[in-house]
Protein backbone atom coordinates (compact mmCIF):
# COMPACT_ATOMS: atom_id res chain seq x y z
CA UNK A 1 0.00 0.00 0.00
CA UNK A 2 1.24 3.52 -0.72
CA UNK A 3 2.43 5.50 2.27
CA UNK A 4 0.89 8.80 3.34
CA UNK A 5 3.83 10.64 1.79
CA UNK A 6 3.32 8.84 -1.52
CA UNK A 7 -0.39 9.64 -1.49
CA UNK A 8 0.41 13.30 -0.84
CA UNK A 9 2.74 13.35 -3.85
CA UNK A 10 0.04 11.68 -5.92
CA UNK A 11 -2.44 14.36 -4.85
CA UNK A 12 0.03 17.08 -5.85
CA UNK A 13 0.40 15.45 -9.25
CA UNK A 14 -3.39 15.32 -9.61
CA UNK A 15 -3.62 19.03 -8.79
CA UNK A 16 -0.95 19.74 -11.41
CA UNK A 17 -2.80 17.66 -14.00
CA UNK A 18 -6.09 19.38 -13.17
CA UNK A 19 -4.73 22.91 -13.49
CA UNK A 20 -1.94 22.60 -16.07
CA UNK A 21 -2.86 19.71 -18.36
CA UNK A 22 -6.60 19.11 -18.62
CA UNK A 23 -7.52 22.67 -19.68
CA UNK A 24 -5.20 22.38 -22.69
CA UNK A 25 -5.56 18.71 -23.61
CA UNK A 26 -8.15 19.14 -26.37
CA UNK A 27 -6.29 22.04 -28.01
CA UNK A 28 -3.00 20.12 -27.91
CA UNK A 29 -4.73 17.18 -29.54
CA UNK A 30 -6.20 19.41 -32.23
CA UNK A 31 -2.88 21.16 -32.90
CA UNK A 32 -0.96 17.85 -32.77
CA UNK A 33 1.76 19.37 -30.62
CA UNK A 34 2.71 20.17 -27.05
CA UNK A 35 3.90 23.67 -26.33
CA UNK A 36 7.22 24.52 -24.73
CA UNK A 37 5.36 25.89 -21.72
CA UNK A 38 4.12 22.47 -20.57
CA UNK A 39 7.67 21.12 -20.44
CA UNK A 40 8.75 24.22 -18.53
CA UNK A 41 6.00 23.63 -15.96
CA UNK A 42 6.85 19.94 -15.70
CA UNK A 43 10.46 20.91 -15.06
CA UNK A 44 9.53 23.49 -12.44
CA UNK A 45 7.50 20.85 -10.60
CA UNK A 46 10.38 18.33 -10.67
CA UNK A 47 8.49 15.82 -12.82
CA UNK A 48 11.34 15.53 -15.33
CA UNK A 49 13.69 14.09 -12.71
CA UNK A 50 11.52 11.67 -10.79
CA UNK A 51 13.81 8.64 -11.12
CA UNK A 52 17.07 10.59 -11.09
CA UNK A 53 18.83 10.21 -7.71
CA UNK A 54 19.11 13.31 -5.55
CA UNK A 55 22.90 13.18 -5.95
CA UNK A 56 22.41 14.12 -9.61
CA UNK A 57 19.74 16.75 -8.99
CA UNK A 58 16.59 14.63 -9.22
CA UNK A 59 13.79 13.73 -6.85
CA UNK A 60 15.03 10.17 -6.30
CA UNK A 61 11.56 8.57 -6.27
CA UNK A 62 11.19 4.85 -5.86
CA UNK A 63 9.33 3.16 -8.70
CA UNK A 64 5.94 3.00 -6.96
CA UNK A 65 5.95 6.72 -6.21
CA UNK A 66 6.88 7.43 -9.81
CA UNK A 67 3.99 5.26 -11.05
CA UNK A 68 1.49 7.01 -8.79
CA UNK A 69 2.54 10.37 -10.22
CA UNK A 70 2.68 9.12 -13.81
CA UNK A 71 -0.88 7.81 -13.62
CA UNK A 72 -2.09 11.28 -12.65
CA UNK A 73 -0.15 12.94 -15.46
CA UNK A 74 -1.64 10.51 -17.99
CA UNK A 75 -5.08 11.15 -16.45
CA UNK A 76 -4.50 14.81 -17.22
CA UNK A 77 -3.18 14.26 -20.74
CA UNK A 78 -1.99 11.01 -22.29
CA UNK A 79 0.48 12.61 -24.71
CA UNK A 80 2.22 14.43 -21.87
CA UNK A 81 2.25 11.18 -19.90
CA UNK A 82 3.98 9.38 -22.76
CA UNK A 83 6.68 12.04 -23.14
CA UNK A 84 7.32 12.09 -19.39
CA UNK A 85 7.46 8.29 -19.23
CA UNK A 86 10.01 7.93 -22.04
CA UNK A 87 12.20 10.64 -20.53
CA UNK A 88 12.02 9.39 -16.93
CA UNK A 89 11.90 5.67 -17.60
CA UNK A 90 14.12 4.00 -20.22
CA UNK A 91 16.34 7.04 -20.83
CA UNK A 92 17.23 7.77 -17.20
CA UNK A 93 17.38 4.12 -16.13
CA UNK A 94 19.73 3.01 -18.90
CA UNK A 95 22.20 5.75 -18.05
CA UNK A 96 21.92 5.00 -14.32
CA UNK A 97 22.28 1.27 -14.78
CA UNK A 98 24.95 1.06 -17.45
CA UNK A 99 26.52 4.49 -17.88
CA UNK A 100 29.93 5.54 -16.62
CA UNK A 101 30.19 8.04 -13.81
CA UNK A 102 31.27 10.63 -16.36
CA UNK A 103 28.17 9.97 -18.46
CA UNK A 104 25.93 10.19 -15.41
CA UNK A 105 27.43 13.50 -14.29
CA UNK A 106 27.18 14.94 -17.79
CA UNK A 107 23.60 13.98 -18.56
CA UNK A 108 21.54 13.15 -15.46
CA UNK A 109 21.49 16.67 -13.97
CA UNK A 110 20.39 18.07 -17.32
CA UNK A 111 17.67 15.44 -17.67
CA UNK A 112 16.51 16.01 -14.08
CA UNK A 113 16.20 19.77 -14.50
CA UNK A 114 14.40 19.46 -17.83
CA UNK A 115 17.17 21.41 -19.57
CA UNK A 116 17.53 18.33 -21.79
CA UNK A 117 14.64 16.14 -22.91
CA UNK A 118 15.41 12.47 -23.50
CA UNK A 119 14.32 10.17 -26.34
CA UNK A 120 14.65 6.43 -26.92
CA UNK A 121 15.36 5.13 -30.45
CA UNK A 122 15.02 1.37 -30.89
CA UNK A 123 12.41 0.54 -33.58
CA UNK A 124 13.17 0.67 -37.31
CA UNK A 125 11.11 0.42 -40.51
CA UNK A 126 11.68 -3.36 -40.64
CA UNK A 127 12.39 -4.00 -36.97
CA UNK A 128 9.60 -3.34 -34.49
CA UNK A 129 8.68 -6.29 -32.30
CA UNK A 130 12.04 -7.99 -32.87
CA UNK A 131 14.75 -5.61 -31.59
CA UNK A 132 17.44 -8.18 -32.33
CA UNK A 133 16.90 -7.71 -36.07
CA UNK A 134 17.67 -4.00 -36.28
CA UNK A 135 20.02 -2.87 -39.03
CA UNK A 136 21.24 0.60 -38.03
CA UNK A 137 25.01 0.21 -38.08
CA UNK A 138 27.64 1.44 -35.65
CA UNK A 139 31.05 1.27 -37.30
CA UNK A 140 34.32 1.96 -35.47
CA UNK A 141 35.70 5.25 -36.73
CA UNK A 142 39.05 6.33 -35.28
CA UNK A 143 38.51 6.89 -31.57
CA UNK A 144 34.73 6.87 -31.96
CA UNK A 145 31.84 5.43 -33.95
CA UNK A 146 29.94 6.23 -37.14
CA UNK A 147 26.18 5.64 -37.07
CA UNK A 148 24.15 4.98 -40.23
CA UNK A 149 20.53 3.92 -40.56
CA UNK A 150 16.91 4.81 -39.91
CA UNK A 151 14.76 4.82 -36.77
CA UNK A 152 10.98 5.03 -36.60
CA UNK A 153 8.42 6.08 -34.01
CA UNK A 154 10.90 8.01 -31.88
CA UNK A 155 8.88 9.74 -29.16
CA UNK A 156 10.40 13.13 -28.27
CA UNK A 157 12.78 12.60 -31.21
CA UNK A 158 12.61 16.15 -32.57
CA UNK A 159 12.43 18.08 -29.32
CA UNK A 160 14.86 15.92 -27.34
CA UNK A 161 18.41 17.06 -26.71
CA UNK A 162 19.65 13.53 -26.05
CA UNK A 163 18.69 10.34 -27.87
CA UNK A 164 19.53 6.91 -26.50
CA UNK A 165 19.98 4.98 -29.72
CA UNK A 166 20.57 1.30 -30.43
CA UNK A 167 22.76 0.23 -33.34
CA UNK A 168 24.46 -2.93 -34.53
CA UNK A 169 28.13 -3.08 -33.49
CA UNK A 170 28.78 -6.57 -34.87
CA UNK A 171 26.93 -9.36 -36.66
CA UNK A 172 25.51 -10.65 -33.38
CA UNK A 173 25.82 -7.64 -31.11
CA UNK A 174 24.06 -4.34 -30.49
CA UNK A 175 25.37 -1.24 -28.80
CA UNK A 176 23.67 1.64 -27.01
CA UNK A 177 24.81 5.18 -27.81
CA UNK A 178 24.24 8.66 -26.42
CA UNK A 179 23.51 10.84 -29.44
CA UNK A 180 23.07 14.62 -29.04
CA UNK A 181 20.30 16.04 -31.18
CA UNK A 182 22.65 18.57 -32.79
CA UNK A 183 25.04 15.88 -34.06
CA UNK A 184 25.93 16.33 -37.74
CA UNK A 185 23.97 13.89 -39.87
CA UNK A 186 21.11 13.45 -37.36
CA UNK A 187 18.05 14.23 -39.50
CA UNK A 188 14.51 14.45 -38.15
CA UNK A 189 11.50 13.68 -40.35
CA UNK A 190 8.00 15.10 -40.12
CA UNK A 191 5.91 14.13 -37.11
CA UNK A 192 3.71 11.10 -37.68
CA UNK A 193 -0.04 11.78 -37.93
CA UNK A 194 -1.32 9.28 -35.40
CA UNK A 195 -4.87 8.23 -34.50
CA UNK A 196 -4.44 9.01 -30.81
CA UNK A 197 -1.80 10.61 -28.61
CA UNK A 198 -1.77 13.17 -31.38
CA UNK A 199 0.13 15.82 -29.44
CA UNK A 200 2.99 13.42 -28.77
CA UNK A 201 5.96 14.13 -31.00
CA UNK A 202 6.65 10.84 -32.77
CA UNK A 203 9.11 11.17 -35.63
CA UNK A 204 11.32 9.14 -37.97
CA UNK A 205 15.04 9.76 -37.68
CA UNK A 206 17.74 9.22 -40.29
CA UNK A 207 21.41 8.87 -39.36
CA UNK A 208 23.77 9.83 -42.17
CA UNK A 209 27.34 9.17 -41.04
CA UNK A 210 26.67 10.53 -37.56
CA UNK A 211 29.96 10.48 -35.70
CA UNK A 212 30.11 10.14 -31.92
CA UNK A 213 33.11 9.84 -29.62
CA UNK A 214 34.03 6.62 -27.85
CA UNK A 215 32.54 8.07 -24.66
CA UNK A 216 29.09 7.98 -26.28
CA UNK A 217 28.93 4.18 -25.96
CA UNK A 218 26.90 3.09 -22.93
CA UNK A 219 28.10 -0.10 -21.31
CA UNK A 220 29.51 -2.91 -23.44
CA UNK A 221 29.50 -2.73 -27.23
CA UNK A 222 27.73 -6.08 -27.70
CA UNK A 223 25.22 -5.93 -24.84
CA UNK A 224 22.65 -3.60 -26.34
CA UNK A 225 19.96 -6.23 -26.84
CA UNK A 226 20.00 -7.05 -23.13
CA UNK A 227 19.82 -3.35 -22.32
CA UNK A 228 16.90 -2.91 -24.73
CA UNK A 229 14.93 -5.74 -23.14
CA UNK A 230 15.56 -4.27 -19.67
CA UNK A 231 14.29 -0.91 -20.90
CA UNK A 232 11.18 -2.51 -22.38
CA UNK A 233 10.35 -4.10 -19.03
CA UNK A 234 10.41 -0.71 -17.32
CA UNK A 235 8.66 0.96 -20.22
CA UNK A 236 5.79 -1.53 -20.13
CA UNK A 237 5.21 -0.96 -16.43
CA UNK A 238 4.99 2.75 -17.15
CA UNK A 239 2.56 2.18 -20.02
CA UNK A 240 0.33 0.15 -17.71
CA UNK A 241 -0.24 3.10 -15.38
CA UNK A 242 -0.56 5.48 -18.32
CA UNK A 243 -3.37 3.25 -19.56
CA UNK A 244 -5.00 3.22 -16.13
CA UNK A 245 -4.89 7.02 -16.07
CA UNK A 246 -6.58 7.21 -19.48
CA UNK A 247 -9.21 4.64 -18.54
CA UNK A 248 -9.88 6.30 -15.21
CA UNK A 249 -10.48 9.62 -16.97
CA UNK A 250 -13.00 7.90 -19.25
CA UNK A 251 -14.77 6.30 -16.29
CA UNK A 252 -14.99 9.57 -14.38
CA UNK A 253 -16.32 11.48 -17.40
CA UNK A 254 -18.90 8.76 -17.99
CA UNK A 255 -20.02 8.76 -14.36
CA UNK A 256 -20.42 12.54 -14.35
CA UNK A 257 -22.40 12.48 -17.58
CA UNK A 258 -24.62 9.65 -16.30
CA UNK A 259 -25.59 11.75 -13.30
CA UNK A 260 -26.52 14.71 -15.52
CA UNK A 261 -28.18 13.00 -18.49
CA UNK A 262 -31.94 12.61 -18.05
CA UNK A 263 -33.99 9.94 -19.80
CA UNK A 264 -37.46 8.76 -18.83
CA UNK A 265 -37.52 11.55 -16.20
CA UNK A 266 -34.50 10.32 -14.28
CA UNK A 267 -30.69 10.35 -14.53
CA UNK A 268 -29.39 7.45 -16.59
CA UNK A 269 -27.05 6.72 -13.65
CA UNK A 270 -30.05 4.98 -12.04
CA UNK A 271 -30.24 2.38 -14.80
CA UNK A 272 -28.71 -0.98 -13.96
CA UNK A 273 -27.01 -1.29 -17.35
CA UNK A 274 -25.14 1.98 -16.81
CA UNK A 275 -24.15 1.03 -13.27
CA UNK A 276 -22.87 -2.34 -14.50
CA UNK A 277 -20.65 -0.63 -17.08
CA UNK A 278 -19.18 1.71 -14.46
CA UNK A 279 -18.59 -1.15 -12.01
CA UNK A 280 -16.82 -3.21 -14.67
CA UNK A 281 -14.64 -0.23 -15.58
CA UNK A 282 -13.60 0.17 -11.96
CA UNK A 283 -12.87 -3.55 -11.63
CA UNK A 284 -10.73 -3.78 -14.75
CA UNK A 285 -8.80 -0.58 -14.09
CA UNK A 286 -8.11 -1.54 -10.48
CA UNK A 287 -6.75 -4.85 -11.70
CA UNK A 288 -4.47 -3.15 -14.20
CA UNK A 289 -3.16 -0.78 -11.54
CA UNK A 290 -2.54 -3.59 -9.06
CA UNK A 291 -0.65 -5.61 -11.68
CA UNK A 292 1.51 -2.58 -12.52
CA UNK A 293 2.39 -2.13 -8.85
CA UNK A 294 3.22 -5.84 -8.51
CA UNK A 295 5.44 -5.57 -11.59
CA UNK A 296 7.14 -2.54 -10.05
CA UNK A 297 8.03 -4.59 -6.96
CA UNK A 298 9.40 -7.36 -9.19
CA UNK A 299 11.42 -4.82 -11.20
CA UNK A 300 13.01 -3.32 -8.09
CA UNK A 301 13.75 -6.77 -6.69
CA UNK A 302 15.38 -7.89 -9.93
CA UNK A 303 17.43 -4.74 -10.16
CA UNK A 304 18.74 -5.20 -6.62
CA UNK A 305 19.58 -8.84 -7.30
CA UNK A 306 16.85 -10.18 -4.99
CA UNK A 307 14.43 -11.37 -7.63
CA UNK A 308 14.36 -13.08 -11.04
CA UNK A 309 14.03 -11.36 -14.36
CA UNK A 310 12.89 -14.46 -16.25
CA UNK A 311 10.07 -16.93 -15.60
CA UNK A 312 6.47 -16.25 -14.74
CA UNK A 313 7.50 -14.71 -11.40
CA UNK A 314 10.14 -12.54 -13.07
CA UNK A 315 9.89 -8.91 -14.03
CA UNK A 316 9.59 -9.55 -17.79
CA UNK A 317 6.40 -11.59 -17.45
CA UNK A 318 4.90 -9.35 -14.78
CA UNK A 319 5.57 -6.22 -16.82
CA UNK A 320 4.01 -7.80 -19.89
CA UNK A 321 0.95 -8.97 -17.94
CA UNK A 322 0.48 -5.50 -16.43
CA UNK A 323 0.73 -3.71 -19.76
CA UNK A 324 -1.56 -6.22 -21.45
CA UNK A 325 -4.26 -6.06 -18.78
CA UNK A 326 -4.14 -2.30 -18.20
CA UNK A 327 -4.12 -1.32 -21.87
CA UNK A 328 -7.07 -3.55 -22.68
CA UNK A 329 -8.90 -2.27 -19.60
CA UNK A 330 -8.34 1.31 -20.76
CA UNK A 331 -9.58 0.68 -24.30
CA UNK A 332 -12.61 -1.22 -23.03
CA UNK A 333 -13.43 1.48 -20.48
CA UNK A 334 -13.14 4.29 -23.04
CA UNK A 335 -15.33 2.36 -25.47
CA UNK A 336 -17.97 1.80 -22.79
CA UNK A 337 -17.77 5.46 -21.82
CA UNK A 338 -18.72 6.35 -25.38
CA UNK A 339 -21.70 4.01 -25.10
CA UNK A 340 -22.82 5.77 -21.93
CA UNK A 341 -22.60 9.13 -23.68
CA UNK A 342 -24.50 7.69 -26.63
CA UNK A 343 -24.46 9.88 -29.73
CA UNK A 344 -22.68 12.64 -27.86
CA UNK A 345 -19.80 10.31 -27.11
CA UNK A 346 -19.14 10.04 -30.84
CA UNK A 347 -18.69 13.80 -31.14
CA UNK A 348 -15.28 15.45 -30.98
CA UNK A 349 -16.33 18.21 -28.61
CA UNK A 350 -17.00 15.64 -25.89
CA UNK A 351 -13.91 14.17 -24.18
CA UNK A 352 -14.38 10.42 -24.42
CA UNK A 353 -13.71 9.91 -28.13
CA UNK A 354 -10.20 11.30 -27.61
CA UNK A 355 -9.67 8.96 -24.68
CA UNK A 356 -10.57 5.95 -26.81
CA UNK A 357 -8.05 7.04 -29.45
CA UNK A 358 -5.38 7.55 -26.80
CA UNK A 359 -6.10 4.25 -25.06
CA UNK A 360 -5.67 2.33 -28.30
CA UNK A 361 -2.07 3.48 -28.52
CA UNK A 362 -1.22 1.78 -25.24
CA UNK A 363 -2.11 -1.57 -26.86
CA UNK A 364 0.52 -0.98 -29.54
CA UNK A 365 3.68 0.83 -28.44
CA UNK A 366 6.49 -0.85 -26.44
CA UNK A 367 5.27 -4.20 -27.80
CA UNK A 368 1.82 -4.91 -29.24
CA UNK A 369 -0.51 -6.93 -27.06
CA UNK A 370 -0.13 -9.85 -29.47
CA UNK A 371 3.62 -9.80 -28.84
CA UNK A 372 3.02 -9.52 -25.09
CA UNK A 373 0.92 -12.67 -25.14
CA UNK A 374 3.82 -14.40 -26.83
CA UNK A 375 6.23 -13.04 -24.21
CA UNK A 376 4.02 -14.23 -21.36
CA UNK A 377 3.52 -17.67 -22.90
CA UNK A 378 7.28 -17.94 -23.40
CA UNK A 379 7.88 -17.30 -19.71
CA UNK A 380 5.26 -19.91 -18.76
CA UNK A 381 6.94 -22.45 -21.03
CA UNK A 382 10.35 -21.49 -19.63
CA UNK A 383 9.12 -22.45 -16.17
CA UNK A 384 7.67 -25.67 -17.56
CA UNK A 385 11.05 -26.58 -19.02
CA UNK A 386 10.02 -26.42 -22.67
Q: Could you characterize the architecture of this molecule?
A:
- This protein has a 4-stranded mixed beta sheet with strand order 1-4-5-8, covered by helices on one side. A 4-stranded antiparallel beta sheet has the order 2-3-7-6, with helices on one face.
- Helix 1 runs parallel beside helix 3, helix 4 packs antiparallel against helix 5 and helix 6 runs parallel beside helix 8.
- 54% of the residues lie in helices and 15% in strands.
- The protein has 386 residues and is of the alpha+beta class.
- The protein folds into 3 domains: 114 residues, Butyryl-Coa Dehydrogenase, subunit A, domain 1; 100 residues, Butyryl-CoA Dehydrogenase, subunit A, domain 2; 161 residues, Butyryl-CoA Dehydrogenase, subunit A, domain 3, CATH 1.20.140.10.
- It is built from 10 helices and 10 strands.
- The chain is globular.
- Strand 2 and strand 3 form a beta hairpin.
Amino acid sequence: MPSNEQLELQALARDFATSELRPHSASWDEARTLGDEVFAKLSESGFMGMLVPEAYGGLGFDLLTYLLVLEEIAWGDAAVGLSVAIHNGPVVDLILRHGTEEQKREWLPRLASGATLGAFALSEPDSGSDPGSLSTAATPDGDGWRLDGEKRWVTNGGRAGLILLFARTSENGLGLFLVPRDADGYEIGASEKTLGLRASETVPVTLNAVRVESGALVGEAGSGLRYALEALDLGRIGIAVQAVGIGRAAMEHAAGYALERQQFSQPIARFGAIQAKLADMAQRLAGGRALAHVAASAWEAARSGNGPRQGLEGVTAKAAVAKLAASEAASWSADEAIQIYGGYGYMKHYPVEKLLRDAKGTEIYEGTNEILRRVIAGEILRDAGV
